[in-house]
Design a protein that fits this description.
258 residues; alpha/beta; 4-stranded mixed β-sheet; two-stranded antiparallel ribbon; 11 helices; 6 strands
């Protein structure tokens, strides 16, 4: 069965590669400094994951956005970086990425923690729905190409990982060998410290939006983990260590070897 599965995956990859030219790949890799320090084996695996992601997920343009082959690769490569060592099974159970040209207004009913229902009319750069699509603003995808800690693709896909156990609470399902108590200690300490800084109107090392909730904190520090690992490790070393164990990646080591 394993040999049959490997053969079938190879066939799928061969078919998917035909959808993109060498120029498409070259253009996209050059545009993503986020991937610059990956080793050759990691680069090859990420490319395969991106193709399988595009086979599994439907990328759907909205409001007249013209979705090109390089744009599809751009989203898929960034989306697959968090699961490079975890596998696409972590994205199981949802099937679409919807792309708007710019920030979008969901205009949908939301129930808060107190049971109050209201209409969300705030413009957003991205959303992740439990068992539903990921929604992205293409303008914000492009704005996230610099290594500055802002990456809407990683942010929303981190929410999807967080939701794997049914709730976005800042703690995705942890691998065997990881301690839930250690995770909670590291994240609670860092989150509380950030909230105190935001309440005091102090400058923060990471996006202050992370203080909105533990779920947003996890998504924001995931952005920082991949984009600005030195900053994250300096500011929240225990959080970096937990993310390193969860994602099974070590971006600081990539920087050192790059």
């Amino acid at each position: 069965m394993s040999r049959l599965s490997d053969w079938w995956q190879t066939r799928i990859l061969e078919q998917e590669r035909l959808r993109f030219s060498a120029a498409d790949w070259k253009r996209v890799w050059a545009s993503l400094p986020l991937l610059r320090n990956l080793g050759p084996a990691e680069t090859e695996r990420l490319a395969d994951l991106a193709l399988l992601f595009l086979r599994d997920k439907s990328l759907e343009p909205a409001q007249g956005l013209q979705l090109t082959a390089p744009m599809r690769l751009n989203v898929a490569l960034q989306a697959c970086l968090p699961v490079l060592e975890l596998g696409l099974d972590w994205y199981r159970g949802w099937y679409a990425v919807i792309l708007y040209p710019d920030a979008f207004v969901p205009a949908r009913e939301v129930m808060d923690e107190d049971g109050l229902v209201w209409i969300d009319t705030e413009a957003k750069s991205g959303e992740a729905w439990e068992q539903g699509p990921v929604i992205l603003s293409w303008a914000d995808v492009e704005a996230g190409l610099e290594l500055d800690g802002y990456n809407v693709v990683i942010h929303e896909l981190a929410h999807k990982l967080d939701m794997r156990d049914g709730v976005a609470n800042g703690c995705p399902p942890l691998h065997g060998g990881l301690s839930a108590a250690d995770w909670k200690k590291a994240f609670s300490k860092a989150y509380d410290a950030l909230c105190r800084q935001v309440d005091a109107d102090e400058e923060t090392a990471i996006d202050p939006y992370a203080a909105e909730s533990p779920a947003e904190f996890f998504a924001v520090v995931s952005e920082a983990f991949f984009e600005v690992p030195t900053l994250l490790a300096d500011e929240y070393p225990d959080v970096y260590a937990q993310l390193r164990a969860f994602y099974r990646q070590h971006p600081l080591a990539r920087l050192a070897s790059g």
